Model the fold of this input.
Amino acid sequence: MTTQFDAAHLIGDKWLPASDGATFETRDPHDGSLLGTVPKGTAADGEAAITAARSAFDDGPWSTMAPKERARILHAVADNLDAHREELAQLETRDGGKTITQSLHAEIPRVAHNLRFFADYVSMAANEAYPDGDLLSYVLYPPAGVVSAISPWNAPLMLATWKIAPALAFGNTVVLKPAPQTPLTAHRFAELALEAGLPPGVLNVVHGFGGEAVAGPLTSDRRVDRITFTGSSATGVKILQSAALNHTPVSAEMGGKSANIIFEDADLDVAVPMSLRAIFGGNGQVCLSGSRLLVQNSIREEFVARFAEEAAKLTVGDPKDPDTFMGPLIEQRHLDKVHGYVELAQSEGGKVLTGGERLADASHSAGFYYPPTVITGLTNESRTAREEIFGPVETVLGFDTEEQALAITNDSPYGLAGMLFTQNLDRAHRMAARWKAGTVWINTFFERDLRLPFGGEGISGLGREGGQYSREFFTEPRAVTIRL
Ligand code: NAD
Done:
């Protein structure tokens, strides 16, 4: 990208700066180059966006439009995204450091898929009707109203549209606040959506930070009917506290510390590459990542040697290069946090098998590069094994029996996801039934069917989204009973 990309708030039909004119910069984590400036939104900006979303909801036509017509517009938006797939992928990769392979072939296509899936879901979903003698009862699903959508930086547009798509499809209007680290694709998405026919005011985008700034009203204003948040568990608690004052329902998708269990009968030709992807894919910054690797002791030495050797071979570098497996971390602060955990691991008795130091050679020193890092010698009681690092750092633990594996897995404050590799499917089903997590993968990783519930237990989440679960959250289900 040669030209600077300056973002603006989208409030109603207007592209606006922050109410006090303040801006912040967004930079390429690969080399620190300036990508653009962004409005540093104020609480007044958040309120203005809610006002715009409120009038668009109350005055229509979006909220009262036939679902088929909304679906037609959302399909047109998806088509426009497809037409700009390469541009959006490049922008996502520049802004957040995600590899171009992932942006182009996974995340940006998923953005359009999110829209198409929920556009169609509204008319495809089964509806409930209960005839009972001379009574007939049925359920209506009117839209909830104004939705605040607050999203993180690690899969920016994919996660933003995981919220926007169902919210809009069910007839709500939205105020989106993207993460300040990666604001650019949200801006471009909004431009493309308007161009494709989304009525003004239906989607509003405000940029900036949490707390008292622009995100404040998004979680505390009485005119907001739903809050959908993806981000850290610590921020989630603040949002839940703020929302509780108005009884505003919150769907929160938060952090993870998922177990990846390798049994001695696993097909290692599948388990090794999948496990590498499960922790080092997405530059190690994936909520679902298998960051606690539990290996059965009978194969632990062999597996870990192979895993660490393959990890050391992964290409870490410019995310714009299609051969790169891992790009940079998002920012200096995050790199310091990740490295801090590696130092902590060593002080807790851990041994670093590979990685463990920032990459500082000529091709990496301008960016926030950290290598795939594998640590052994810790217990599940260590802070390294209990806290979310959100970086390319794998903690290896051993176990002897299925019961032990399950006990270690479930001994975590998090409960987002997990995966296991075994050829014994009886065992796999037994484990899945007792696993404390929102998603369990067996002999695979990261597959997502959007009809399934997505979310977490413990401090990983509150509520579920996806298919009918999104309908329940983004509508206000109403029971109607008529005497015939
Ligand atoms: P974060 O919690 O720092 O920020 C997320 C969003 O919340 C940002 O837009 C931020 O500006 C906003 N925010 C911050 N403070 C706020 C406040 N007080 N009120 C309202 N909004 C506020 O998270 P992050 O660093 O951007 O993202 C990484 C985290 O997200 C990790 O913990 C990761 O596991 C989690 N995550 C979870 C999922 C999931 O689906 N469960 C997916 C991706 C990321």
Q: What stands out?
A: The mean pLDDT is 97. Residues 100-124 form the longest helix (25 residues).
